[in-house]
Amino acid sequence: MCLAIPSKVITVEGGMATIDVDGVRRQASLMLLDDVIVGDYVIVHAGFAIQKLDEAAALESIQLLREAAALMDNLDPDNG
Fold this sequence. Notes:
- This protein is α+β, with helices and mostly antiparallel strands.
- The chain has one domain (6-75): SH3 type barrels, CATH 2.30.30.
- It has one helix and five strands.
- Strand 2 and strand 3 (24-29) form a beta hairpin.
- The longest helix has 21 residues, at 55-75.
- The chain is elongated and about 45 Å long.
């Protein structure tokens, strides 16, 4: 199973972007998308940006993922 997490584009150089996922930065290929610019949100799979998202949808998804992670932490018996 694959979980698609929106990533913010920080830099674009040639066909590559530096993306940020909640403070973690990675490289992603832009080969499959047109017109990606700094500030866009993208979904990345296997190192390739495969879809652009509007900012509102991206931020909503990120918030929902944070809430789900917090719920999982509360259910974890090893988490105090």
